[in-house]
Recover the amino acids of this structure.
């Protein structure tokens, strides 16, 4: 423990981009109780010119952390083997002021274990955000042999992820803790009329999705569903808010499908709550997910959700209660589910209202941070040989 009686915590993440995991890592570091924890946010690729399309979000997250009294360390790594760039973090870890290092996502989990053990940091926490299951056997082996073996606990963001870690990777059940993701429901809209801004008629039907434009999200399936529905609903609009490497491929597919003005690709937006107010139905067409923040944002906005039945989504969106679940990679099934809601405004309102209630009860950022704070203190007490009980 530090001289001031607080636990020093380093949150480690590779980048600050528009992905939910990266944003969540920064928010956890920012919201730790300053009376109990001395928080440091370390971004190991800063600045990241390769993600310039993310706009000013990285800087906003940094400023928000510093305004909350969180120390910020940005490592100017130019590549994987740029070892001198790690020196500011290494010095901090060897100072004796760090009791806990918390990595987020595969690369940072590896760094947290290796650097944390070398520096004899008492507690090492790895936070898995689904990706380790999707990159083949090498990552699975590293996840088990290095990350799981070298950390005190791995946090899973969904019960399905925890099950897969235990059953597929054969991790010890007591080493994997499920902590539900959460968002801050206090994020208010600025009252901007996004429909008017985009030239969408007030009575037009709008189907939307928010997320980083990467292969996992399978926005191509949503575009094909849009092509199914556009001839049946003149004036309908499909809106994508997000940026990423898949944009050129999606633009080419939109042209091939002749979507024209039916599809609006907004790029990265800093006013997501306002954008959501323009939607009638929200969609998640991903191949795999843990507990995506975007879906929680849809629920908070009172939107009915059409989602693929993958990963942790069936635990978030109960079919027929908060939305409609469909098989992945099936644009016809996706189009049918969207149409089912578009033709029934009352059902949209009922599903959206139920989703908002569930989000506020179960997927709250403050509750999530409280659980993580408790986990930190329990793990540190256990390292010191103090009596404690850690619930799975």
């Amino acid at each position: 423990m530090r001289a001031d009686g607080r636990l020093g915590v380093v949150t480690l993440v590779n980048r600050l981009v528009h992905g939910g995991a990266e944003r969540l890592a920064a928010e956890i570091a920012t919201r730790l109780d300053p009376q109990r924890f001395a928080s440091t946010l370390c971004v190991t690729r800063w600045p990241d010119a390769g993600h310039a399309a993310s706009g000013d979000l990285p800087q906003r997250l940094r400023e928000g952390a510093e305004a909350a009294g969180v120390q910020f360390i940005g490592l100017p790594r130019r590549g994987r083997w740029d070892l001198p760039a790690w020196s500011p973090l290494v010095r901090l870890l060897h100072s004796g002021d760090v009791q806990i290092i918390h990595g987020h996502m595969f690369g940072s989990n590896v760094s947290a274990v290796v650097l944390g053990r070398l520096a004899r940091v008492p507690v090492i926490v790895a936070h898995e955000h689904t990706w380790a299951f999707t990159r083949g056997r090498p990552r699975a082996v590293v996840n088990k042999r290095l990350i799981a073996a070298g950390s005190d606990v791995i946090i899973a963001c969904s019960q399905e992820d925890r099950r897969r870690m235990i059953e597929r990777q054969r991790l010890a059940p007591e080493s994997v803790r499920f902590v539900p993701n959460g968002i801050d429901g206090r994020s208010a809209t600025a009252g901007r009329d996004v429909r008017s801004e985009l030239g969408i008629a007030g009575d037009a039907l709008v189907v939307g999705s928010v997320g980083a434009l990467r292969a996992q999200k399978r926005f191509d399936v949503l575009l094909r569903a849009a092509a199914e529905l556009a001839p049946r609903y003149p004036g309908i609009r499909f809106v994508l808010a997000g940026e990423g490497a898949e944009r050129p491929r999606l633009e080419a597919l939109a042209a091939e499908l002749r979507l024209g003005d039916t599809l609006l690709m907004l790029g990265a937006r800093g006013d997501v709550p306002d954008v959501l107010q323009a939607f009638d139905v929200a969609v998640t067409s991903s191949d795999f997910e843990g507990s995506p923040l975007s879906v929680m944002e849809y629920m908070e906005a009172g939107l009915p959700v059409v989602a693929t039945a993958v990963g942790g989504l069936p635990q978030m969106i109960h079919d027929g209660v908060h939305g409609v679940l469909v098989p992945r990679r099936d644009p016809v099934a996706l189009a049918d589910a969207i149409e089912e809601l578009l033709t029934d405004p009352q059902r949209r309102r009922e599903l959206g209202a139920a989703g908002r209630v569930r989000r506020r009860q179960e997927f709250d950022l403050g509750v999530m941070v409280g659980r993580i704070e408790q986990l930190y203190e329990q793990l540190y007490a256990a390292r010191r040989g103090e009596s404690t009980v850690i619930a799975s």
